[in-house]
Every structure is written in structure tokens, then in C-alpha cells.
Design a protein that fits this description.
8% strand, 603 residues, seven-stranded mixed β-sheet, elongated
Length: 603
């Protein structure tokens, strides 16, 4: 009966996690990074994007039709030259899109479905990790936390390579735990070691940040070997034969980890030149911190805990009234402090139990090493990964596994129930209600965390939290809300591939906002305008841009890197007959969401 209840709970957790990930999967438009995924995975390149010409929105939609004849080697060649990512995810995505091409869903839904499935797989994998490393109930709670984590749901609804590395990190940690057991028992299971090598080799070709996870595992293995050597070796050997025997034992202990680590490193060598080239590409410069103000120096120290909070609770704070933001922040801080205190107490008990000490030590050291790598990259290389919460995906599963196991520990004598606060004798005053609420939360901590996570994840699906960067949906709504009865010409200046991808995301957002493309797309045209030589040339080319729209019309200029003062008060636009029309700046409709966009009235 217990086994049956346990199994049904696991099934329910998987169903809940899948529901949260697939709900509203294609509700939000693609943003820049997802457009990059779509372009490469569907078998296209940037060379096929129409530039410096005004086209209806439906023309840009055609770019995202599957080309089933594209092969993985062709995708590898494209990714090598036009991206800064490893190729494996894009090849897998292309294969996936070929399989599901006939399904009656939108192409955006199909594109995001593979990461969503990876997110469901991560739920099952974290269950297995916690069940093996701790105990079965820890497996259930770890799976439950992964299922309702708003951070995990957010990443699962991104058409990007985040959930697959998360799954591989979990499998790598599971293998690492078995490796540590083998080292302790002086045994060697070839299947376990080969599996760990394979997972860590694949991870690098899915996402470069997997290198940080592999480096952390190497540190864990090294620390374990060092501890075992110190435990088994006497400080003062009595004879040379004894000393030789100890050296032989140490070599037998170190040889399997060294061979495994070396093998993984050798699998990275074929792609290493491309990796080094990608790291020097200008597309990675956006992570650099160019400011020397003291606030930027301490930013990583508070950005890290903010990322941890978002893993368990995320309430609406983006584009909300100030009072909603204030209430949400206060609730998130209070919940995080309460949960943090319980987790710390639970980890102490896990550390003290012989059965769970090894797994606790492994996860804590792994998390600490990855976090230290984040800080070293921020302070020594000048690229602040902590500023982007989604990059925490590389150690997120280890944190969830540890939190899940720790919450199954009792409050203990340091908890509120054992402090002699006399909660029952406090009456119904404010303090009495407050203490009773805390006591109830402590008794029902698991349900509280699951309910809060579920509400947060529903907010993610409803686009209330973790909104898309550069918010193509909001930009499309702003443009359609001003004089919607007039034809609209939207221009986007670009200087590199990323700008092109961003422009395509805005074109797709506008296409989704306009509804029926057969009716409205002829009234909205979009143009990507080169600005490699400055905006003076952009405005000149705009005056000669050919388009079929009639005047009067709306002109929107999206201009990355341009200050508000850089917009001209008056621009020239020609009609189909070549006659010049004047476009006047509309000061009331200037916006900035990451990049600026300005409306002009063209008579």
C-alpha cells in the first residue's frame, strides 16, 4: 500500500509538472534568443533573411517554415559561423521539428515542446537522484519542488537549450554520487563510470556553461580522493615497503578519476578551437560590465540570492502598479526567509546523519564551486553571469535536490513549537495569530512550498512574471494602439546577427498582434535597415525605401543604441510614385524597453 501511494504521488507530480509547462506554451511571442533557435533548427540561416527592404509581416513568417532537407552537418556549419553556441541542441531540435511537423499545433508550440519535455524529464531525474542519494520521500519532494518551481517552468517554456543541460546535470550528479561510493568502497563499476563520461561529454556540446558543472564535479572528485588518501594513510610510515604499498594504493585510488576526467577532456578537443573563437566573438560583449561604480562591484553579491529566491517563488513585479510590486516583494522576502531558516536546519541534520552525509557534502560543494566560478568570472573576466537569473540553471538542480531533502527534516528543538512561546496562551491578538500562522506553516511546510510554487508557476504561464526580454508583445501592443486605422511601416536598425534576430522577434510579435494575416498584414510592413555606418545613413536609406503603403501612415523607428536626442524631428519617406512625404516626430509616443522606439506621423 505504501509503495502504491508513493507511485501515485510520483505520477501526480509528473502530471502537475507537465501541465504547468505545457499550459499557455505558445501564448507568448518568441523573443530574440528563441528566434535564433527557430532559425537554425528549422534549417535556415541569416543569409535568407530579407534585409533593407519593406515587406509584409507574413513574409517574415515564411522564414520559419521547416526545411526537412537540412542535415545536422549543415546546421553545425551554420552554428559555427553565425552563432556562439554548440550545435547539438539545434540538431536535436531539427530532428524533433521533423517528427512533429504534421501535428495540429502552431510551430511556436512545437518549438517549445521539446524544452518542455526536457523539463518534465528533469522532474523524473531529480526524483531518481534524491531517492538514490537520500531516501524515497526525499525523491518525491525533490520532484515536487522541480515540478512547481517557477524558474524551472520559465526555462521549460523557452525554446532554448536550458532544460536539456539541467537534465544532464542531474544525471551527472547521480553518476558522481555513484563514483564517490565506488571510491569509498574501493570498487569499480564500468557502466557507471562510462555513463558519467558520456553525460559530461554530451553536456559541453549542448551548452558551453556545462563546463562550469564539469569543473565543479572535478573539484568534488579531487576533494573526495584527497580526503580518502588522508584517512587511509598514516602520517609517519614506519618502513619503505609500507610507504611503497601506500603509494600503490593511492595510485589505484586516483587512476579511475584521472582516466575519466581525461577522457571527458579529450571529447572536448574537436570543438575546442570553435569554442575559443566563439568566446572572442562580439556577441558575447553584452555581458561585460563597463561601469566602475561601487554598486556594480557588489551587484553579484545580491544578484545571486535574488536568483535563489526566484527558484521557489516569483510574484508579479514587472510592469505592475507600485503597490502590487511592494506587496509582491515583501511576500517573496518573507517567504524566502522562512524557507531559508527551515532549509538550513534541515541541511544540518542531513550533514549529521551518516546515511545522508556524503550526498549532502557532494551537493553543497558542487553548488559552492559553481557559485565561486560565477563570482570569479564576474570579478576577474568582467562578465557578470549573476545579472542574468536564467544562467543559474547550471547549479539549480543541485539546489532543488538539497532543498527537497532538507524539508523532510523536523523543526527540532530550535523550532517555534519547542521554544516555549506558549502559542495557545497568546489569545487572538495580532502576535498570537502571527505565531499560530508560523507554527502552521512549519507543520505544513511541504504543502506551503508546493502551493506557493504552483501559484508562481501559473503566473509564469500567464505572462505576469519572467516576461520575455525586450518584450516583443508589449512593443507590438504599443505600435498597434496608436492610430490603428492607418497603415504602419516599422523599421528596425541592425548592426549584427543579434539585432537581426531581435528585429525578427518584433516582426513576429506584430504579426501575432494583428490577428488574421490575410486581412491586416498588407497594412503593416516591416524593414530591417543596416546601421553599420551610423544612423545618418539609416535615415538616408529610409527616405529611398520602397513600399506599397498609402499616406497618411504611421512610421515607427526601432533604433538600438540611439539616445532619444538622436532621433530627427523630421524624416522623409517616399510613396509608390516616388513623391516625398514629410514625417514628423511624435514626442508623446517615445518608448524604451531595453531599446528605444519612436513614432512619426507621415502626411
Amino acid at each position: 500500500m505504501k509503495a502504491s501511494r508513493h507511485d501515485w504521488l510520483l505520477v501526480g507530480i509528473l502530471v502537475l509538472g507537465a501541465g504547468l509547462r505545457f499550459w499557455h506554451l505558445d501564448f507568448k511571442p518568441l523573443w530574440m534568443d528563441e528566434v535564433i533557435t527557430a532559425l537554425f533548427s528549422l534549417g535556415h540561416t541569416y543569409d535568407q533573411v530579407p534585409l533593407d527592404q519593406a515587406l509584409p509581416l507574413s513574409a517574415f513568417e515564411q522564414l520559419f517554415r521547416l526545411n526537412p532537407q537540412t542535415t545536422c552537418p549543415q546546421i553545425v556549419a551554420t552554428v559555427t559561423t553565425q552563432s556562439v553556441h554548440p550545435p547539438l541542441f539545434f540538431c536535436w531540435m531539427h530532428t524533433w521539428m521533423t517528427w512533429v511537423d504534421a501535428w495540429p499545433f502552431s510551430w511556436i508550440w512545437k518549438l517549445r515542446a521539446l524544452p518542455a519535455l526536457g523539463g518534465v524529464g528533469a522532474i523524473a531525474a531529480i526524483y531518481l537522484l534524491n531517492r538514490v542519494a537520500f531516501f524515497p520521500r526525499a525523491g518525491l519532494l525533490g520532484a515536487a519542488l522541480m515540478a512547481v518551481s517557477p524558474f524551472a517552468v520559465y526555462l521549460s517554456q523557452e525554446a532554448r537549450h536550458y532544460t536539456l543541460p539541467i537534465l544532464l546535470v542531474i544525471l551527472a550528479l547521480l553518476g558522481l554520487y555513484h563514483l564517490l561510493l565506488d571510491l569509498q568502497h574501493q570498487s569499480f563499476r564500468p557502466a557507471i563510470w562510462l555513463g558519467w563520461i558520456a553525460v559530461n561529454s554530451l553536456g559541453f556540446y549542448v551548452h558551453y556553461f556545462f563546463l562550469l558543472a564539469f569543473a565543479a564535479q572535478v573539484v568534488v572528485l579531487g576533494a573526495a580522493c584527497w580526503a580518502l588518501i588522508r584517512r587511509h594513510n598514516p602520517r609517519h610510515p614506519k618502513s619503505k615497503p609500507q610507504n611503497l604499498e601506500l603509494k600503490t594504493q593511492n595510485l589505484k585510488l586516483l587512476l579511475p578519476p584521472l582516466l575519466a576526467i581525461t577522457t571527458v577532456g579529450l571529447t572536448y578537443l574537436p570543438w575546442l578551437p570553435t569554442f575559443l573563437h566563439h568566446m572572442r566573438r562580439p556577441e558575447t560583449d553584452w555581458l561585460k560590465s563597463h561601469a566602475s561604480h561601487w554598486s556594480h562591484a557588489i551587484a553579484p553579491l545580491y544578484q545571486l540570492p535574488v536568483s535563489w529566491v526566484l527558484m521557489v517563488i516569483a510574484l508579479p513585479v514587472e510592469q505592475q502598479p507600485w503597490w502590487i510590486v511592494l506587496v509582491s516583494v515583501l511576500l517573496m522576502v518573507a517567504f524566502s526567509l522562512w524557507l531559508g531558516s527551515r532549509v538550513v536546519q534541515g541541511i544540518r541534520r542531513l550533514w549529521q546523519l551518516p546515511e545522508t552525509h556524503l550526498a549532502t557534502w557532494m551537493l553543497l560543494l558542487f553548488i559552492a564551486v559553481v557559485v565561486l566560478q560565477f563570482l570569479a568570472i564576474a570579478y576577474f573576466l568582467g562578465k557578470d553571469l549573476t545579472a542574468i537569473p536564467r544562467y543559474s540553471f547550471i547549479y539549480f538542480p543541485a539546489l532543488i535536490a538539497l532543498v527537497g531533502a532538507s524539508l523532510l527534516q523536523p523543526v527540532g528543538r530550535s523550532g517555534i513549537r519547542d521554544r516555549g512561546l506558549g502559542i495557545r496562551d497568546r489569545g487572538l491578538g495580532v502576535r498570537g495569530w502571527f505565531l499560530r500562522a508560523i507554527a502552521l506553516m512549519n507543520r505544513q511546510a511541504i504543502w506551503v512550498v508546493v502551493i506557493v510554487g504552483t501559484v508562481s508557476s501559473l503566473s509564469v504561464g500567464a505572462n505576469l512574471v519572467f516576461q520575455k526580454p525586450y518584450n516583443p508583445e508589449r512593443i507590438a501592443q504599443d505600435m498597434r494602439s496608436v492610430a490603428p486605422h492607418l497603415p504602419t511601416l516599422v523599421t528596425m536598425a541592425y548592426s549584427d546577427y543579434q539585432d537581426v534576430a531581435m528585429g525578427l522577434s518584433f516582426a513576429l510579435g506584430l504579426h501575432q498582434e494583428t490577428g488574421n494575416p490575410s486581412v491586416r498584414s498588407p497594412k503593416t510592413y516591416f524593414a530591417l535597415m543596416a546601421q553599420n555606418q551610423g544612423y545618418e545613413l539609416v535615415w538616408q536609406n529610409l527616405s529611398r525605401l520602397e513600399h506599397p503603403l498609402t499616406f497618411p501612415l504611421n512610421l515607427w523607428a526601432i533604433s538600438p543604441g540611439l539616445k532619444r536626442s538622436g532621433y530627427y524631428n523630421q524624416l522623409t519617406l517616399q510613396d509608390q510614385r516616388g513623391s516625398a512625404h514629410q514625417c514628423f516626430i511624435d514626442p508623446a509616443h517615445y518608448y524604451r524597453i531595453g531599446i528605444p522606439y519612436q513614432r512619426y506621423r507621415c502626411d
